[in-house]
Amino acid sequence: MADQYSRTRLLLGQEGMERLRSAYVALFGLGGVGGYAAEVLARSGVGHIDLIDDDTVSLTNLNRQLLATHSTIGKYKVDVAAERIRDIDPTIEVRVFRTFYLPETEALFDFTRYDYVLDAIDTVTGKLALIAQAKAAGTRVISCMGTGNKLDPTAFTVADISKTSGCPLARIMRKECAKRGLRDVKVVYSRELPREPAADPSDPPESQRPGSSRRSTPGSTAFVPAAAGLILAGEVIRELSQI
């Protein structure tokens, strides 16, 4: 009998779908990358999803973030994402955390309960703490590198952090992971060199998160962060559905 996962089951099989249904994943960050990753998790039938982000939807999110519409401006992204997931599949268990992940907030999360952790946040400090906590718990983790100031969605690939090149954020993460002894760190990164964004006097600079590696507000498009988010979550679905 056909159901909403019939087409996915043709590729992953019944056992694969059952593994996804029993899986517990955590998605940190619901911006341009994380919003699309959440969509993939939900439409693939992942049974238990934790969403972590303290940000609200803003006007400047409309050009690239799946969760951003005029009707969601001002709402917490985790709440918007949870409502969307429950509308896609009401049987998915969703928990929301209006929290910005940093070493100061890591104690809120027990990583041993997760089968996979997705990192779609944009601060080096947070990424390093998240990866370290996942590694300490023996939990699989995948981390997205920079998507700003890029125009080629086909340049993304999955690799170990030690094998990355071209991405400024990956360069910092590669150095810091080596310094901390963090090995076998799977990442999604773009080989495209970032472009210099044009100055726009009508666009006020975005406030910087503590631990952010950004020196200025990056340019972004609707398709580059989306591509990274799809690859990020696709890798998780592929692994979780396999034996």
Describe the structure.
It contains six helices and seven strands, in the order H-E-H-E-H-E-E-H-E-E-H-E-H. By secondary structure, it is of the alpha/beta class. A seven-stranded mixed beta sheet has the order 3-2-1-4-5-7-6, sandwiched between helices. Strand 1, helix 2 (32-43) and strand 2 form a beta-alpha-beta unit. Helix 1 (6-22) crosses helix 6 (224-241) and helix 2 (32-43) packs parallel to helix 3 (77-88). The model has no long low-confidence stretch (mean pLDDT 94).
Question: Secondary-structure map with pairings?
Answer:
Elements: H1 6-22, E1 24-28, H2 32-43, E2 48-52, H3 77-88, E3 93-97, E4 116-119, H4 124-137, E5 140-144, E6 156-160, H5 168-180, E7 186-190, H6 224-241
Parallel strand pairs: 1-2, 1-4, 2-3, 4-5, 5-7
Antiparallel strand pairs: 6-7
Helix pairs in contact: 1-6, 2-3, 2-6
State the share of residues found in helices, binned by percent.
25-40%
Shape category: globular
Are there runs of 5+ residues with pLDDT below 50, and where? none
Number of strands: 7
Q: How many strands, which pairing sense, and closed or not: the largest β-sheet?
A: 7 strands, mixed
Order of helices and strands: HEHEHEEHEEHEH
Estimate the strand proportion.
5-15%
**Class by SSE composition:** alpha/beta
Mean pLDDT: 94
Number of helices: 6
Strand order of the largest sheet: 3-2-1-4-5-7-6
Distance N to C terminus: 25 Å
Radius of gyration: 17 Å
Brief rundown of the structure:
This protein is α/β, with parallel strands linked by helices and 243 residues long.
Features of the shown structure:
35% helix, seven-stranded mixed β-sheet, single chain, 6 helices
